[in-house]
Amino acid sequence: MAGLQVCSVLVTGANQGIGLGLVRHFLGMPNPPKWVFAACQDPKGQRAQELQNLASKHPNLVIIPLEVTDPASIKAAAARVGEHLGGSGLNLLINNAGIMKLNSLDNETLEDMTQVYTTNTIGPLLLGQAFLPLLKKAAQGSPSSALSCSKAAIINMSSSGGSIEEVYLWNYGQAVSYRCSKAALNMLTKCQSLGYRQHGVLCVALHPGWVQTDMGGAGSQKVGVSPWQSPCADFPWEGRELLP
Ligand code: NDP
After folding, report:
1. What is the pTM of this model?
2. Among the entry's GO cellular component annotations, what is one (predicted)?
3. Is 162 in the pocket of ligand 1 (CB under 6 A)?
4. Which of 108, 132, 195, 236 has the most beta carbons within 10 angstroms of its beta carbon?
């Protein structure tokens, strides 16, 4: 993350996997952000134990409750973050939370399609809307005219599984709802980039590589890298290839 200078960042789905890896990276930077907001569904629960341990050591880490499928929870999270920031804006919103169902074309369902789309696509849309005022504030407060992660940005954690041009690992798992949700997330990112550019907010979709997590498969599968080695820990992201 050398070269990145952010005052504040929010990571969704921060209690495990890539989200937790990102939080650790931010906290370990030579110049760590003044505020690292780690959003998760149940900040006091067992699944957030590692975040709680980190928060006891790092006063700049704030755990925020967030259910990305619930508009009220998203608004409440934005209000909380705004309170912590006082008058300043949020530099970086990382929409990382996501789910996958390994359903095939034959057994995909209305319920799963809806749940996966709501989490992976609608969540980032609503988060972008709710945090836009804080992102705009950060952009307005930046001396730089160029779009950048250090100024104000939305990073949507996509997947090459959503690529239409190269349908990645079809034989490994069809995961139809997941692929569709990430393809739609890529288009959402394009729409956000067109709509929010005028406010000085960079919008990027990122494929983190194959990472050993609950979703990416750990245990028996010897594929992927650990969250600490994921290329998404390598800044700057501005230069990265956007997904189709
Ligand atoms: P994990 O399953 O390890 O973590 C997913 C995170 O999202 C968890 O913190 C989970 O919370 C959270 N989450 C899920 N649903 C919600 C919700 N409704 N509200 C709030 N938080 C929620 O996945 P990864 O870390 O592997 O994946 C992170 C992102 O990276 C995802 O968007 C995924 O699609 C993407 N990605 C991952 C790849 C990989 O190889 N791992 C490859 C390509 C993309 P909880 O623990 O409480 O369930």
Report:
1. 0.93
2. cytoplasm
3. no
4. 132
